[in-house]
Amino acid sequence: RKEVEQDPGPFNVPEGATVAFNCTYSNSASQSFFWYRQDCRKEPKLLMSVYSSGNEDGRFTAQLNRASQYISLLIRDSKLSDSATYLCVVNIRADSNYQLIWGAGTKLIIKP
Amino acid sequence: DVKVTQSSRYLVKRTGEKVFLECVQDMDHENMFWYRQDPGLGLRLIYFSYDVKMKEKGDIPEGYSVSREKKERFSLILESASTNQTSMYLCASSISWGFTGELFFGEGSRLTVL
Questions:
Q1: Is A91 an interface residue toward B (CB < 8 Å)?
Q2: Chain B residues with CB inside 8 Å of A42's CB?
Q3: What is the pLDDT of residues B22-48, one digit of tens each?
């Protein structure tokens, strides 16, 4: 089982719709969580950090469920420009070392 | 804005050739990283460096080496390229220790080994 798992998609969603996808992680020592966005043939860029209480940034909402070990990303009123691959990242602390584990990404396609 | 620049966007090399991938960041970041990205897999860390002349192995260091002679520059070296090293290579930098902060990536270097 992968340490960080994401549904690869693609999720095909009409413009204006709401879409949500999850990312599950297996290591209970996971400390912090992030969503990165990667456009086609481009580098990943930080979309948002995920806080324990959940957080919102405009149309984007990220939530953490520690009990079930997953994080989620919800996009409201989706735009064509939201088409991208969304990468889930988990920061695991073991002793004094940290390790970032990346999911393989969920591809989102917004259709007009 | 932070800028991370990778020297080559696309390279084609032959098996056994030596390959240099260079990365320069302009934000005085302490930490620099080399990842590879392959379809269906998450980014995998090859090496990272938290200071000049310091380096730490990541998850998949075999077949790679790195050099950090100056704070702004982090080079990835493939001593003898093999076909299984065909991949997208991403350099990143960050200001925060412990992977707790944002990583800033370069545009990537797509390497094909024939």
A1: yes
A2: 107-108
A3: 999 999 999 999 999 999 998 999 999
